[in-house]
Design goal:
Elements: E1 99-103, H1 110-119, E2 125-129, H2 130-134, H3 150-172, E3 176-181, H4 192-199, E4 204-208, H5 212-220, H6 230-240, E5 250-251, H7 258-274
Helix pairs in contact: 1-7, 3-4, 5-6
Length: 279
């Protein structure tokens, strides 16, 4: 059974060809003719009309506020030296926005002390661990325990720079930071200069250096790639002794628990604020 149809359907639209297939709705196919209006008789003039009144303008509604929005964050810049309080006022590091670098060998307790210190401050504080950031790399992770080479050095530098960017952004938004890293006094690649470049001159370094026997005990409780051989621990600890005489504050937490070490860290930082170390 056939049905009567009018003009055929337009062909499928091809991209970039204007109207679909060059088809125009204005009758490409022949159809019934519709003549226009008859011509006006000779001498006819259309009636005059007055001016057209303007169309009243509708008031424009104010824009609807963006209820989701976003919080504008100030950019992170180099961290300046903390301002020393008046001589009559003892500095209170627990309520001051600070950038702290906690240095020490594996097993010194850097991460545990840093987390506890950050958890118990009166102001917002972030803990940034260099080892955690290095281990963001999963496939292709260059473990320095397998030998220090170009890949491990590059990943270390990248992690340190990432930590520095994070610290600057946190601090620019009023959040203190404590970073922990095994910084060697005799190795420029993993020295303090990079931290000062990435965070700023206001970074306050503190060395956490318990006795070798304590470090060995704590290292024995570790697992995975965080656990080192006793020989490696002893070698690192010996090199860390180079911080003595450097002018940096040193905490021997051999006989201190985590809370006591964090309290001593506050005391050391109070002195560093009043008289920043030269490094």
């Amino acid at each position: 059974m056939q049905h009567a149809v009018g003009s055929p359907l337009p062909p499928p639209h091809q991209p970039g060809q204007g109207p679909p297939g060059g088809w125009s709705p204005a009758g490409q196919q022949p159809g019934p003719h519709h003549p226009g209006p008859p011509p006006a008789p000779p001498g006819y003039a259309p009636p005059s009309v007055g001016p057209v009144p303007p169309v009243p303008q509708q008031p424009v509604a104010p824009p609807v506020p963006d209820t989701t929005g976003h919080v504008r964050l100030p950019p992170g810049g180099p961290v300046p030296m903390p301002a020393a309080p008046p001589a009559a006022t003892a500095p209170d590091p627990t309520s001051t926005t600070l950038a702290v670098l906690l240095i020490g060998p594996a097993g010194a307790g850097k991460t545990s002390v840093a987390k506890y210190w950050a958890d118990h401050r009166r102001v917002p504080t972030a803990h940034i661990s260099l080892d955690d950031v290095r281990e963001w790399v999963r496939s292709g992770f260059a473990d320095p325990q397998s030998g220090w080479n170009d890949h491990s050095e590059a990943q270390y530098r990248l992690a340190r720079r990432t930590c520095g960017f994070a610290a600057r952004n946190f601090l620019a938004n009023g959040i203190s930071c404590i970073l922990d890293d095994a910084v060697f006094p005799d190795r420029p690649v993993v020295g303090l200069g990079g931290w000062k470049r990435h965070v700023g001159p206001g970074l306050l370094p503190v060395v956490l250096l318990p006795g070798l026997e304590i470090v060995l005990e704590r290292n024995a409780e570790r697992s995975g790639n965080r656990r080192l051989s006793d020989e490696e621990v002893a070698r690192i600890h010996g090199r860390m002794a180079g911080w003595y005489g450097s002018g940096l504050p040193i905490i021997d937490n051999s006989q201190l628990d985590i809370a006591q070490t964090a309290q001593l860290l506050d005391d050391v930082l109070a002195r560093s604020i009043a008289s920043p170390p030269q490094w």
